Amino acid sequence: MGDGSCRFVHILLVEDDVRLGEALQRALQRLSYTVSWLRDGRTALAAMRDRTADLVLLDLGLPGRDGIDVLVEARRAGVETPVLVMTARDGLSSRVDGLDAGADDYLVKPFHVEELAARIRSLNRRMRGLAANRIDVGMLSLDMGTSRVVFRGRTVDLTRREFALLQALMENAGRLVRRESLENSLYGLDHVVGNNALEVLVHSLRRKLDHETIRNVRGFGYMIPRDPK
Amino acid sequence: MGDGSCRFVHILLVEDDVRLGEALQRALQRLSYTVSWLRDGRTALAAMRDRTADLVLLDLGLPGRDGIDVLVEARRAGVETPVLVMTARDGLSSRVDGLDAGADDYLVKPFHVEELAARIRSLNRRMRGLAANRIDVGMLSLDMGTSRVVFRGRTVDLTRREFALLQALMENAGRLVRRESLENSLYGLDHVVGNNALEVLVHSLRRKLDHETIRNVRGFGYMIPRDPK
DNA sequence: GCGCCGCTTAAGCGTTTCATAAGGCGCCTG
DNA sequence: CAGGCGCCTTATGAAACGCTTAAGCGGCGC
Questions:
Q1: What mean pLDDT value characterizes chain A?
Q2: How distant is the Cα of A110 from the closest Cα of chain B, in angstroms?
Q3: How far apart are CA B149 and CA B151, in angstroms?
Q4: Of B19, B176, B190, which has the smallest distance from its Cβ to A92's Cβ?
Protein backbone atom coordinates (compact mmCIF):
# COMPACT_ATOMS: atom_id res chain seq x y z
CA MET A 1 0.00 0.00 0.00
CA GLY A 2 2.69 2.45 0.33
CA ASP A 3 4.01 3.32 3.74
CA GLY A 4 7.05 1.21 3.41
CA SER A 5 5.26 -2.08 3.60
CA CYS A 6 5.05 -4.63 0.85
CA ARG A 7 2.30 -6.83 2.16
CA PHE A 8 -1.39 -6.27 1.78
CA VAL A 9 -3.30 -4.35 4.36
CA HIS A 10 -6.64 -5.77 5.27
CA ILE A 11 -9.35 -3.38 6.39
CA LEU A 12 -12.57 -4.39 8.09
CA LEU A 13 -15.28 -1.93 7.11
CA VAL A 14 -18.32 -1.96 9.40
CA GLU A 15 -21.07 0.18 7.93
CA ASP A 16 -24.76 -0.43 7.67
CA ASP A 17 -25.59 2.24 5.14
CA VAL A 18 -25.41 0.65 1.72
CA ARG A 19 -24.49 3.69 -0.32
CA LEU A 20 -21.81 4.93 2.01
CA GLY A 21 -20.50 1.42 2.43
CA GLU A 22 -20.17 0.93 -1.29
CA ALA A 23 -18.47 4.27 -1.75
CA LEU A 24 -15.98 3.64 1.03
CA GLN A 25 -15.23 0.18 -0.18
CA ARG A 26 -14.50 1.46 -3.66
CA ALA A 27 -12.38 4.32 -2.41
CA LEU A 28 -10.33 2.07 -0.16
CA GLN A 29 -9.83 -0.54 -2.84
CA ARG A 30 -8.60 2.16 -5.15
CA LEU A 31 -6.03 2.94 -2.50
CA SER A 32 -4.90 -0.67 -2.78
CA TYR A 33 -6.37 -1.90 0.46
CA THR A 34 -8.09 -5.22 0.85
CA VAL A 35 -11.55 -4.46 2.15
CA SER A 36 -14.07 -6.66 3.90
CA TRP A 37 -17.38 -4.90 4.21
CA LEU A 38 -19.64 -6.04 7.03
CA ARG A 39 -23.10 -4.66 7.57
CA ASP A 40 -23.96 -5.47 11.15
CA GLY A 41 -22.45 -5.66 14.58
CA ARG A 42 -22.68 -9.37 15.09
CA THR A 43 -20.64 -10.43 12.10
CA ALA A 44 -18.28 -7.53 12.72
CA LEU A 45 -17.52 -8.75 16.21
CA ALA A 46 -16.92 -12.25 14.93
CA ALA A 47 -14.58 -10.97 12.27
CA MET A 48 -12.64 -8.89 14.76
CA ARG A 49 -12.21 -11.91 16.99
CA ASP A 50 -10.57 -13.70 14.09
CA ARG A 51 -7.84 -11.06 14.12
CA THR A 52 -7.32 -11.31 10.41
CA ALA A 53 -7.78 -7.60 9.86
CA ASP A 54 -5.05 -5.00 10.21
CA LEU A 55 -7.46 -2.18 10.88
CA VAL A 56 -11.15 -1.73 11.61
CA LEU A 57 -13.22 1.11 10.24
CA LEU A 58 -16.27 1.23 12.49
CA ASP A 59 -19.38 3.30 11.96
CA LEU A 60 -20.96 4.28 15.29
CA GLY A 61 -24.15 5.28 13.51
CA LEU A 62 -25.27 1.68 13.54
CA PRO A 63 -28.80 1.29 14.81
CA GLY A 64 -29.18 0.70 18.53
CA ARG A 65 -25.75 1.88 19.58
CA ASP A 66 -24.54 -1.38 18.33
CA GLY A 67 -21.20 0.02 17.28
CA ILE A 68 -19.96 0.90 20.73
CA ASP A 69 -20.92 -2.45 22.10
CA VAL A 70 -18.98 -4.15 19.36
CA LEU A 71 -15.94 -2.10 20.24
CA VAL A 72 -16.21 -2.67 23.97
CA GLU A 73 -16.86 -6.35 23.49
CA ALA A 74 -13.90 -6.76 21.17
CA ARG A 75 -11.54 -4.92 23.47
CA ARG A 76 -12.71 -6.94 26.40
CA ALA A 77 -11.96 -10.05 24.38
CA GLY A 78 -8.42 -8.85 24.00
CA VAL A 79 -8.62 -7.72 20.39
CA GLU A 80 -5.95 -5.07 19.91
CA THR A 81 -6.53 -4.28 16.29
CA PRO A 82 -6.51 -0.52 15.72
CA VAL A 83 -10.03 0.85 15.37
CA LEU A 84 -10.95 4.00 13.54
CA VAL A 85 -14.41 5.18 14.49
CA MET A 86 -16.74 7.17 12.25
CA THR A 87 -19.49 9.20 13.87
CA ALA A 88 -22.14 11.64 12.76
CA ARG A 89 -21.64 15.22 13.78
CA ASP A 90 -24.66 15.37 16.05
CA GLY A 91 -23.75 12.28 18.01
CA LEU A 92 -21.39 14.04 20.36
CA SER A 93 -21.91 11.73 23.27
CA SER A 94 -21.41 8.66 21.15
CA ARG A 95 -18.17 10.10 19.85
CA VAL A 96 -16.92 10.59 23.35
CA ASP A 97 -17.98 7.13 24.28
CA GLY A 98 -16.22 5.79 21.24
CA LEU A 99 -12.88 7.12 22.29
CA ASP A 100 -13.50 6.00 25.83
CA ALA A 101 -14.40 2.55 24.68
CA GLY A 102 -11.05 1.99 23.08
CA ALA A 103 -11.04 3.54 19.65
CA ASP A 104 -7.67 4.66 18.41
CA ASP A 105 -8.95 7.49 16.30
CA TYR A 106 -12.19 8.97 15.15
CA LEU A 107 -13.54 10.77 12.15
CA VAL A 108 -16.58 13.00 12.03
CA LYS A 109 -18.95 12.48 9.12
CA PRO A 110 -18.97 13.75 6.52
CA PHE A 111 -15.29 13.60 5.79
CA HIS A 112 -12.97 13.66 2.82
CA VAL A 113 -11.37 10.49 1.61
CA GLU A 114 -8.13 12.41 1.81
CA GLU A 115 -8.59 12.72 5.54
CA LEU A 116 -9.56 9.10 5.93
CA ALA A 117 -6.53 7.94 3.98
CA ALA A 118 -4.24 10.04 6.13
CA ARG A 119 -5.68 8.60 9.33
CA ILE A 120 -5.38 5.07 8.05
CA ARG A 121 -1.77 5.56 7.07
CA SER A 122 -1.04 7.11 10.43
CA LEU A 123 -2.63 4.24 12.31
CA ASN A 124 -0.81 1.70 10.22
CA ARG A 125 2.49 3.38 10.80
CA ARG A 126 1.90 3.58 14.51
CA MET A 127 0.82 -0.01 14.65
CA ARG A 128 3.93 -1.09 12.89
CA GLY A 129 5.90 0.64 15.60
CA LEU A 130 8.06 2.87 13.54
CA ALA A 131 7.52 6.52 14.19
CA ALA A 132 8.46 6.82 10.55
CA ASN A 133 7.00 10.11 9.64
CA ARG A 134 9.67 10.75 7.11
CA ILE A 135 10.00 9.48 3.59
CA ASP A 136 13.23 9.70 1.63
CA VAL A 137 13.30 9.07 -2.06
CA GLY A 138 16.36 9.99 -4.04
CA MET A 139 17.09 13.64 -3.57
CA LEU A 140 13.73 14.19 -1.93
CA SER A 141 12.95 14.13 1.75
CA LEU A 142 9.47 14.67 3.13
CA ASP A 143 8.73 15.02 6.83
CA MET A 144 5.09 14.66 7.76
CA GLY A 145 5.73 15.73 11.31
CA THR A 146 7.09 19.13 10.43
CA SER A 147 5.49 19.29 6.99
CA ARG A 148 8.85 20.15 5.53
CA VAL A 149 10.19 19.09 2.19
CA VAL A 150 13.86 19.13 1.30
CA PHE A 151 14.98 18.73 -2.29
CA ARG A 152 18.67 18.52 -3.12
CA GLY A 153 19.51 19.84 0.31
CA ARG A 154 17.30 22.81 -0.20
CA THR A 155 14.10 23.41 1.75
CA VAL A 156 11.13 23.85 -0.52
CA ASP A 157 7.98 25.71 0.45
CA LEU A 158 4.90 23.81 -0.62
CA THR A 159 1.25 24.60 -0.25
CA ARG A 160 -1.06 22.13 1.36
CA ARG A 161 -2.24 20.60 -1.86
CA GLU A 162 1.24 20.35 -3.29
CA PHE A 163 2.41 18.71 -0.11
CA ALA A 164 -0.42 16.20 -0.20
CA LEU A 165 0.29 15.34 -3.80
CA LEU A 166 3.98 14.88 -3.20
CA GLN A 167 3.27 12.76 -0.17
CA ALA A 168 0.94 10.50 -2.12
CA LEU A 169 3.56 10.06 -4.81
CA MET A 170 6.46 9.49 -2.45
CA GLU A 171 4.52 6.96 -0.43
CA ASN A 172 4.23 4.99 -3.62
CA ALA A 173 7.67 5.76 -4.92
CA GLY A 174 8.70 3.50 -7.74
CA ARG A 175 5.13 2.64 -8.50
CA LEU A 176 2.67 4.25 -10.78
CA VAL A 177 -0.14 6.09 -9.02
CA ARG A 178 -3.29 6.26 -11.03
CA ARG A 179 -4.65 9.63 -11.85
CA GLU A 180 -7.99 8.62 -10.43
CA SER A 181 -6.40 7.52 -7.20
CA LEU A 182 -4.57 10.80 -6.81
CA GLU A 183 -7.70 12.81 -7.46
CA ASN A 184 -9.55 10.76 -4.90
CA SER A 185 -7.00 11.15 -2.20
CA LEU A 186 -6.57 14.86 -2.87
CA TYR A 187 -10.18 15.82 -3.19
CA GLY A 188 -13.03 13.73 -1.96
CA LEU A 189 -15.58 11.27 -3.04
CA ASP A 190 -17.49 14.33 -4.17
CA HIS A 191 -15.15 14.47 -7.10
CA VAL A 192 -16.61 17.73 -8.32
CA VAL A 193 -13.23 18.99 -9.47
CA GLY A 194 -12.58 19.60 -13.10
CA ASN A 195 -10.42 17.23 -14.99
CA ASN A 196 -7.24 19.21 -15.31
CA ALA A 197 -6.93 20.39 -11.73
CA LEU A 198 -4.45 17.62 -11.11
CA GLU A 199 -2.30 18.61 -14.06
CA VAL A 200 -2.10 22.17 -12.90
CA LEU A 201 -1.14 20.97 -9.46
CA VAL A 202 1.54 18.72 -10.86
CA HIS A 203 2.85 21.60 -12.86
CA SER A 204 3.17 23.94 -9.89
CA LEU A 205 4.88 21.20 -7.94
CA ARG A 206 7.33 20.56 -10.73
CA ARG A 207 8.24 24.21 -10.85
CA LYS A 208 9.21 24.11 -7.20
CA LEU A 209 11.25 20.94 -7.65
CA ASP A 210 12.31 20.24 -11.19
CA HIS A 211 10.67 18.93 -14.31
CA GLU A 212 12.13 15.44 -14.17
CA THR A 213 11.41 13.81 -10.84
CA ILE A 214 7.68 13.58 -11.34
CA ARG A 215 7.11 11.39 -14.34
CA ASN A 216 3.92 11.09 -16.27
CA VAL A 217 2.64 7.80 -17.61
CA ARG A 218 0.41 8.72 -20.41
CA GLY A 219 -3.18 7.65 -19.92
CA PHE A 220 -2.64 6.30 -16.42
CA GLY A 221 -1.14 8.67 -13.93
CA TYR A 222 2.11 9.81 -12.36
CA MET A 223 5.02 8.36 -10.49
CA ILE A 224 8.29 9.19 -8.78
CA PRO A 225 10.96 6.63 -9.65
CA ARG A 226 12.63 5.07 -6.67
CA ASP A 227 16.01 4.85 -8.34
CA PRO A 228 16.44 8.03 -10.27
CA LYS A 229 17.47 7.07 -13.79
CA MET B 1 8.75 3.34 23.74
CA GLY B 2 10.88 5.74 22.00
CA ASP B 3 11.96 8.51 24.35
CA GLY B 4 15.37 7.11 24.92
CA SER B 5 14.59 5.19 28.07
CA CYS B 6 15.27 1.52 28.54
CA ARG B 7 13.69 0.85 31.88
CA PHE B 8 10.04 0.36 32.56
CA VAL B 9 7.85 3.33 33.18
CA HIS B 10 5.22 2.90 35.85
CA ILE B 11 2.02 4.87 35.47
CA LEU B 12 -0.57 5.38 38.16
CA LEU B 13 -3.98 5.63 36.55
CA VAL B 14 -6.67 7.18 38.74
CA GLU B 15 -10.07 6.82 37.12
CA ASP B 16 -13.42 5.87 38.55
CA ASP B 17 -15.25 5.15 35.33
CA VAL B 18 -14.90 1.48 34.59
CA ARG B 19 -15.09 1.58 30.83
CA LEU B 20 -12.74 4.49 30.42
CA GLY B 21 -10.40 2.99 32.95
CA GLU B 22 -10.27 -0.31 31.10
CA ALA B 23 -9.71 1.41 27.79
CA LEU B 24 -6.93 3.60 29.11
CA GLN B 25 -5.21 0.76 30.88
CA ARG B 26 -5.23 -1.31 27.73
CA ALA B 27 -4.05 1.56 25.58
CA LEU B 28 -1.18 2.35 27.91
CA GLN B 29 -0.17 -1.25 28.24
CA ARG B 30 -0.09 -1.48 24.50
CA LEU B 31 2.41 1.38 24.62
CA SER B 32 4.57 -0.75 26.91
CA TYR B 33 3.86 1.09 30.11
CA THR B 34 3.30 -0.60 33.42
CA VAL B 35 -0.09 0.53 34.63
CA SER B 36 -1.65 0.48 38.07
CA TRP B 37 -5.29 1.36 37.87
CA LEU B 38 -6.86 2.81 41.00
CA ARG B 39 -10.53 3.63 41.25
CA ASP B 40 -10.80 6.05 44.13
CA GLY B 41 -9.03 8.93 45.74
CA ARG B 42 -8.07 7.27 48.97
CA THR B 43 -6.03 4.45 47.50
CA ALA B 44 -4.64 6.83 44.89
CA LEU B 45 -3.27 9.11 47.57
CA ALA B 46 -1.71 6.19 49.37
CA ALA B 47 -0.10 4.97 46.19
CA MET B 48 1.28 8.39 45.40
CA ARG B 49 2.80 8.60 48.84
CA ASP B 50 4.70 5.40 48.10
CA ARG B 51 6.48 7.18 45.26
CA THR B 52 6.73 4.03 43.21
CA ALA B 53 5.11 5.58 40.17
CA ASP B 54 6.89 7.61 37.54
CA LEU B 55 3.80 9.46 36.47
CA VAL B 56 0.21 9.91 37.63
CA LEU B 57 -2.73 10.11 35.28
CA LEU B 58 -5.47 11.73 37.29
CA ASP B 59 -9.11 12.11 36.29
CA LEU B 60 -10.64 15.20 37.82
CA GLY B 61 -14.11 13.94 36.98
CA LEU B 62 -14.08 11.86 40.12
CA PRO B 63 -17.20 12.30 42.18
CA GLY B 64 -17.07 14.95 44.87
CA ARG B 65 -14.08 16.84 43.49
CA ASP B 66 -12.05 14.12 44.98
CA GLY B 67 -9.37 14.43 42.36
CA ILE B 68 -8.23 17.89 43.25
CA ASP B 69 -8.04 17.04 46.91
CA VAL B 70 -5.87 14.06 46.12
CA LEU B 71 -3.52 16.26 44.15
CA VAL B 72 -3.35 18.99 46.75
CA GLU B 73 -2.88 16.47 49.52
CA ALA B 74 -0.10 14.67 47.68
CA ARG B 75 1.75 17.86 46.88
CA ARG B 76 1.45 18.94 50.48
CA ALA B 77 2.98 15.65 51.46
CA GLY B 78 5.97 16.45 49.28
CA VAL B 79 5.17 14.11 46.41
CA GLU B 80 6.84 15.49 43.30
CA THR B 81 5.75 12.85 40.82
CA PRO B 82 4.56 14.45 37.58
CA VAL B 83 0.79 14.56 37.38
CA LEU B 84 -1.19 14.69 34.16
CA VAL B 85 -4.74 15.76 34.79
CA MET B 86 -7.73 14.76 32.64
CA THR B 87 -10.80 16.96 32.74
CA ALA B 88 -14.16 17.00 31.06
CA ARG B 89 -14.83 19.71 28.57
CA ASP B 90 -17.34 21.60 30.66
CA GLY B 91 -15.21 21.62 33.74
CA LEU B 92 -13.18 24.68 32.88
CA SER B 93 -12.84 25.77 36.43
CA SER B 94 -11.70 22.35 37.52
CA ARG B 95 -9.02 22.44 34.86
CA VAL B 96 -7.77 25.72 36.20
CA ASP B 97 -7.92 24.42 39.72
CA GLY B 98 -6.01 21.39 38.60
CA LEU B 99 -3.10 23.40 37.35
CA ASP B 100 -3.19 25.58 40.42
CA ALA B 101 -3.19 22.52 42.60
CA GLY B 102 0.07 21.34 41.15
CA ALA B 103 -0.65 19.41 37.98
CA ASP B 104 2.13 19.40 35.41
CA ASP B 105 -0.08 19.15 32.39
CA TYR B 106 -3.71 18.73 31.51
CA LEU B 107 -5.73 17.03 28.85
CA VAL B 108 -9.29 17.87 27.86
CA LYS B 109 -11.63 14.95 27.35
CA PRO B 110 -12.21 13.47 24.95
CA PHE B 111 -8.75 13.05 23.54
CA HIS B 112 -6.84 10.84 21.15
CA VAL B 113 -4.73 8.11 22.63
CA GLU B 114 -2.04 9.49 20.40
CA GLU B 115 -2.27 12.84 22.14
CA LEU B 116 -2.11 11.22 25.55
CA ALA B 117 0.97 9.28 24.52
CA ALA B 118 2.66 12.46 23.36
CA ARG B 119 2.00 14.18 26.68
CA ILE B 120 3.29 11.26 28.63
CA ARG B 121 6.48 11.12 26.62
CA SER B 122 6.90 14.84 27.04
CA LEU B 123 6.44 14.65 30.80
CA ASN B 124 8.84 11.77 31.04
CA ARG B 125 11.46 13.59 29.06
CA ARG B 126 10.99 16.68 31.14
CA MET B 127 11.21 14.72 34.34
CA ARG B 128 14.35 12.94 33.28
CA GLY B 129 16.12 16.00 31.93
CA LEU B 130 17.04 17.53 35.23
CA ALA B 131 16.37 20.98 33.86
CA ALA B 132 13.02 19.75 35.04
CA ASN B 133 10.37 22.20 34.15
CA ARG B 134 11.91 24.95 32.12
CA ILE B 135 12.16 25.40 28.39
CA ASP B 136 14.50 27.93 26.84
CA VAL B 137 14.24 28.87 23.22
CA GLY B 138 16.11 31.84 21.92
CA MET B 139 15.05 34.89 23.89
CA LEU B 140 12.17 33.00 25.44
CA SER B 141 12.14 31.19 28.73
CA LEU B 142 9.12 29.35 30.05
CA ASP B 143 8.90 27.88 33.54
CA MET B 144 6.10 25.41 34.05
CA GLY B 145 6.69 25.24 37.76
CA THR B 146 6.05 28.88 38.40
CA SER B 147 4.06 29.48 35.21
CA ARG B 148 6.34 32.40 34.45
CA VAL B 149 7.48 33.49 31.04
CA VAL B 150 10.47 35.70 30.41
CA PHE B 151 11.01 37.30 27.02
CA ARG B 152 14.16 39.31 26.34
CA GLY B 153 14.84 39.48 30.03
CA ARG B 154 11.43 40.88 30.71
CA THR B 155 8.74 39.01 32.58
CA VAL B 156 5.55 38.68 30.55
CA ASP B 157 2.15 38.12 32.06
CA LEU B 158 0.24 35.50 30.16
CA THR B 159 -3.20 34.09 30.64
CA ARG B 160 -3.64 30.39 30.98
CA ARG B 161 -4.59 29.84 27.39
CA GLU B 162 -1.73 31.92 26.13
CA PHE B 163 0.62 30.02 28.39
CA ALA B 164 -0.65 26.68 27.14
CA LEU B 165 -0.26 27.78 23.55
CA LEU B 166 3.26 29.05 24.09
CA GLN B 167 4.17 25.88 25.92
CA ALA B 168 2.91 23.71 23.09
CA LEU B 169 4.93 25.72 20.62
CA MET B 170 8.09 25.84 22.71
CA GLU B 171 8.00 22.13 23.42
CA ASN B 172 8.16 21.67 19.66
CA ALA B 173 10.52 24.53 18.99
CA GLY B 174 12.03 24.40 15.54
CA ARG B 175 9.26 22.19 14.31
CA LEU B 176 5.97 23.09 12.85
CA VAL B 177 2.97 22.38 15.06
CA ARG B 178 -0.14 21.64 13.13
CA ARG B 179 -3.11 23.83 13.67
CA GLU B 180 -5.26 20.84 14.44
CA SER B 181 -2.80 19.62 17.00
CA LEU B 182 -2.81 22.98 18.76
CA GLU B 183 -6.58 23.15 18.78
CA ASN B 184 -6.75 19.66 20.19
CA SER B 185 -4.36 20.34 22.99
CA LEU B 186 -6.02 23.64 23.85
CA TYR B 187 -9.66 22.80 23.50
CA GLY B 188 -9.99 19.05 23.26
CA LEU B 189 -11.49 17.22 20.34
CA ASP B 190 -14.85 18.91 20.32
CA HIS B 191 -13.89 22.16 18.72
CA VAL B 192 -16.71 23.70 16.75
CA VAL B 193 -16.24 24.34 13.10
CA GLY B 194 -15.60 27.81 11.81
CA ASN B 195 -14.06 29.32 14.88
CA ASN B 196 -10.92 31.33 14.75
CA ALA B 197 -10.21 31.18 18.43
CA LEU B 198 -6.70 29.98 17.76
CA GLU B 199 -5.86 32.94 15.57
CA VAL B 200 -7.13 35.38 18.13
CA LEU B 201 -5.12 33.64 20.77
CA VAL B 202 -2.00 33.75 18.64
CA HIS B 203 -2.59 37.41 18.05
CA SER B 204 -2.90 38.28 21.69
CA LEU B 205 0.20 36.26 22.44
CA ARG B 206 2.14 38.03 19.71
CA ARG B 207 1.18 41.37 21.15
CA LYS B 208 2.68 40.41 24.46
CA LEU B 209 5.86 39.13 22.85
CA ASP B 210 6.50 40.46 19.40
CA HIS B 211 5.19 39.79 15.94
CA GLU B 212 8.12 37.75 14.69
CA THR B 213 8.85 34.88 17.03
CA ILE B 214 5.65 33.01 16.33
CA ARG B 215 5.65 32.15 12.67
CA ASN B 216 2.70 31.02 10.65
CA VAL B 217 2.97 28.38 7.97
CA ARG B 218 -0.03 28.88 5.81
CA GLY B 219 -2.31 25.91 5.58
CA PHE B 220 -0.42 23.93 8.22
CA GLY B 221 0.04 25.66 11.52
CA TYR B 222 2.51 27.64 13.60
CA MET B 223 6.05 27.30 14.81
CA ILE B 224 8.74 28.97 16.87
CA PRO B 225 12.13 28.68 15.15
CA ARG B 226 14.83 27.20 17.32
CA ASP B 227 17.61 29.32 15.94
CA PRO B 228 16.19 32.69 15.25
CA LYS B 229 18.44 33.72 12.39
C1' DG C 1 -24.50 44.26 41.97
C1' DC C 2 -20.95 46.39 39.30
C1' DG C 3 -16.98 46.29 36.73
C1' DC C 4 -12.83 43.93 35.26
C1' DC C 5 -10.72 40.14 32.95
C1' DG C 6 -10.24 36.28 30.04
C1' DC C 7 -12.36 33.78 26.38
C1' DT C 8 -15.04 33.05 22.30
C1' DT C 9 -17.50 34.61 18.35
C1' DA C 10 -18.24 37.55 14.54
C1' DA C 11 -17.06 40.57 10.75
C1' DG C 12 -13.93 43.21 7.59
C1' DC C 13 -9.85 43.10 4.98
C1' DG C 14 -5.55 41.81 2.50
C1' DT C 15 -3.01 38.02 0.86
C1' DT C 16 -2.29 33.42 -0.81
C1' DT C 17 -3.89 29.47 -2.93
C1' DC C 18 -6.68 27.00 -5.96
C1' DA C 19 -9.92 25.42 -9.68
C1' DT C 20 -11.24 26.60 -14.06
C1' DA C 21 -10.80 27.84 -18.74
C1' DA C 22 -8.39 28.06 -22.87
C1' DG C 23 -4.49 27.67 -26.07
C1' DG C 24 -0.46 24.93 -27.48
C1' DC C 25 2.37 20.94 -28.16
C1' DG C 26 3.53 16.16 -28.87
C1' DC C 27 2.25 11.39 -29.54
C1' DC C 28 -0.46 7.88 -31.31
C1' DT C 29 -3.78 6.11 -34.59
C1' DG C 30 -6.18 5.73 -38.62
C1' DC D 1 -0.45 13.27 -42.91
C1' DA D 2 -4.42 14.77 -40.56
C1' DG D 3 -7.02 14.47 -36.59
C1' DG D 4 -7.85 13.28 -31.85
C1' DC D 5 -6.40 12.73 -27.39
C1' DG D 6 -3.68 13.50 -23.38
C1' DC D 7 -0.69 16.51 -21.12
C1' DC D 8 1.63 21.10 -20.26
C1' DT D 9 1.37 25.86 -19.50
C1' DT D 10 -0.48 30.40 -18.51
C1' DA D 11 -3.94 33.67 -16.99
C1' DT D 12 -7.88 34.83 -14.15
C1' DG D 13 -11.64 35.02 -10.92
C1' DA D 14 -13.12 32.92 -6.77
C1' DA D 15 -12.43 30.83 -2.46
C1' DA D 16 -9.64 29.87 1.50
C1' DC D 17 -6.71 31.44 5.03
C1' DG D 18 -4.94 34.32 8.45
C1' DC D 19 -4.73 38.95 10.84
C1' DT D 20 -7.02 42.29 13.25
C1' DT D 21 -10.61 44.76 15.70
C1' DA D 22 -14.83 44.86 18.17
C1' DA D 23 -18.59 43.03 20.69
C1' DG D 24 -20.91 39.57 23.78
C1' DC D 25 -20.64 36.47 27.67
C1' DG D 26 -19.60 34.42 32.02
C1' DG D 27 -16.71 34.18 36.18
C1' DC D 28 -14.60 36.52 39.92
C1' DG D 29 -13.27 40.16 43.02
C1' DC D 30 -14.48 44.46 44.97
A1: 81
A2: 13
A3: 7
A4: B190
CB contact under 8 A, B23 and A104: no
Task: Name the residue range of residue A153's domain.
Answer: 134-223
Q: H or E stretch including B155?
A: strand B154-156
d(C-alpha A169, C-alpha A186), whole Å = 11
Q: Which nucleotide is nearest to B202 (CA to C1')?
A: D19
Q: What is the mean pLDDT of residues B23-51?
A: 88
CA distance B168 to chain A (A): 14
CATH number where A52 lies? 3.40.50.2300
The pLDDT tens digits of the residues spanning A135-175 come to 899 999 999 878 889 999 999 999 999 999 999 999 889 98
Using an 8 Å Cβ cutoff, are A62 and A109 in contact?
no
- CA–CA distance from B170 to each of A118, B142, B212, B214 (Å)? 26, 8, 14, 10
- Record: contact A72-B111, CB cut-off 8 A: no
Q: Which nucleotides of C are covered by protein (CB under 7 A)?
A: 5-11, 16-23, 28
Nearest to A105 among B23, B30, B112 (CB): B112
Residue A2 lies in a domain: no
Domain closes at, from B128, B158, B188: B128
- What 3-state DSSP class applies to A140? strand
**B30–chain A Cβ distance below 8 A for any pair:** yes
> Could you give the C-alpha distances from B138 to A212, B105, B153, B168, B227, in angstroms and in order?
40, 23, 11, 16, 7
Question: Do B23 and B113 fall within a single domain?
Answer: yes
CATH of the domain at A213: 1.10.10.10
Kindly determine whether residue A159 and residue B112, on different chains, have CB atoms separated by under 8 Å: no
Q: How far is B112 from chain A (nearest CA, A)?
A: 6
Domain count, chain B: 2
Residue B170 near residue B158 (C-beta atoms within 8 A): no
